[in-house]
Amino acid sequence: MVVVMGRDAAPEDVAAVVDAVRAAGGDAFVSRGRSRTIIGLVGDAERFDALNLHSLDGVAEVVRISVPYKLVSREHCPDRSVIMVGPVPIGPDTMTVIGGPCAVETAEQTFEAAVLARAAGASLLRGGAFKPRTSPYAFQGLGEAGLKILADVRAETAMPVVTEVIDPADVDLVASYADMIQIGTRSMQNFALLQAVGAVGKPVLLKRGMCATIEEWLMAAEYIAQRGNLNIVLCERGIRTFETATRNTLDISAVLVAQRLSHLPVVVDPSHAAGRRDLVIPLTRAAIAAGSDGVIVDIHPDPKLALCDADQALTEADIREFSSVVTHLPPLIGRSLTPAPDRQLCDRL
After folding, report:
1. What is the residue-averaged pLDDT of the chain?
2. What integer is the mean pLDDT of 24-37?
3. In the chain, where are the structural domains located?
4. Among the CATH numbers 3.40.50.1110, 3.90.1310.10, 3.20.20.150, 3.20.20.70, which is that of 83-337?
5. pTM check: above 0.85
6. From CA 341, how far away is CA 121, in angstroms rounded?
7. What's the rounded mean pLDDT across residues 241-249?
8. Mapping DSSP to helix (H, G, I), strand (E, B) and coil, where does residue 37 land?
9. Does the pLDDT of residue 344 top 60, yes or no?
10. How far apart are CA 208 and CA 220, in angstroms?
C-alpha cells in the first residue's frame, strides 16, 4: 500500500501520515520525486484501512499495490517519470545520450573524450573513477583524483557527470562530485550500497545485473526508492547467456517490459552489451527503435591506449555516424535528442 501526497502537502502533513502508520504498528518510508511525495507502507493492510488515511490533510490518494516493487511500479504511478540530472531530462519524450570514457585515466584523455561525446550528441558525461574489475590486477580507477578530473571537465564543458560508486563507504564522497550516481551490474544486489545511495538523494543510474531477472532489477530500484529517492533511471546493459560472439546479450525486450512495469526511464548501454565497437551504432539504432529513453556509450580519443574496455569504445571516426543516428532516428518515434547544456566553452574547444 502507498499513500500519494498532494502537490501542496506540507511537511507536517507527511509527518502526520507517518506517525499514524507507526502508531498502528506499521512502518512508513517517505520517497520524494521531482513532482510528488509518496509514502510506502509496510505492515498489516487491514490496520491501515482502519486509519482512514485518505481523510488526512495533504493526502491525494491511497493505493493498494499488488506487485512487490511498490514505489517504482506503474500501478501507483501510471504516467512515466522524467528524471532530471541537473538541467538534463531523461524520460519518454526525449532521447538522452550519456557518453565518455569507461575509465578516467588522465585529465587530457577525459577532456578529449568529453569533447567527442558532446560532438556525438551527448548531454551527460560518463566516466569511471572507481572501477570494479573481474581481475584484481586490472586498472581499478583513480579514486578521488578521478572524481576531481570529472569535476574539472564538467566546469569546462557544462556536461553533468555520471560516475559509479562501488562501496557504501564512498557514497558521500562520490555524491559530492557527481550529478548522477551509477550502480554497476556487479553491485545491483549490494543492498547496503543501494540503501546508502537512496539516502543521499542524487539521481541514480541503476544497471541491470548480468544474471538478474527484470523483477530482481526492479526490486533493486525499490531498495533505492524506499530510502527516499525516486530519481532512478534503469539501464539495460546486456545479460550473460550461452552466446560468446558478443560480450553480453542485449535484451532489447527488457526495455519494453521494464517500461510497462515501472514508471522509471529505461536506457540502454550498447557498449557493454556488445563489447565490440562495430556493433555499438547498430545496437544504438535498435535501442532507439525499441523506445529506449537514452543510451550510454563508451568514447575514447585513442582506444588502443585505453586502460579499460578498449575494444568497445567509439573513436573520433565513429562520431559523425553516431551523431546522425541519435539526431535523425528519435523524431521518427516522436522524440527529440536532448541537447547538451548551454555554456560558453573554453578556448580549447
Report:
1. 92
2. 83
3. 2-63, 83-337
4. 3.20.20.70
5. yes
6. 11
7. 95
8. strand
9. no
10. 9
Given a cut of 90, whether residue 46 has pLDDT beyond it is: no
Q: Comparing C-alpha atoms, which of 253, 200, 196, 208 is closest to residue 233? A: 208
291 vs 40, 88, 242, 286, 322, CA distance in Å? 29, 19, 26, 9, 17
- In tens, the pLDDT along 299-331 reads 999 999 888 888 999 999 999 999 999 999 999
d(CA 301, CA 101): 9
| Residue pointed to by grid coordinates 501526497 | 5
Tell which residue, 132, 126, 117, 151, has the closest CA to residue 267: 126
Q: Which three cell numbers stand for residue 78?
A: 501510471
Q: Which class is 2-63 in CATH?
A: alpha beta
Instruction: Kindly report, residue by residue over 259-271, the tens digit of the pLDDT.
Output: 999 999 999 999 9
Residue type for position 114: A
Query: CA 81 → CA 262, 286, 327, 337, distances in Å?
Result: 9, 22, 22, 17
CB 207 within 8 A of CB 235: yes
Q: Can you list the pairs that 89-94 forms with residues at least 24 positions away whose Cβ atoms lie under 8 Å?
A: 89/338, 90/233, 90/265, 90/267, 90/293, 90/294, 90/338, 91/265, 91/293, 92/265, 92/293, 92/335, 93/334, 93/335, 93/336, 94/293, 94/294, 94/330, 94/335, 94/336, 94/337, 94/338
For 105, 107, 154, 275, 303, the CA distances from 145, given in Å and listed in that order, are 10, 10, 14, 27, 21
Number of DSSP helices (H) and strands (E) in the chain, helices first: 11, 15
C-alpha cell at 151: 569535476
Q: Summarize pLDDT for 83-122 with one digit per residue, the tens.
A: 999 999 999 999 999 999 999 999 999 999 999 999 999 9
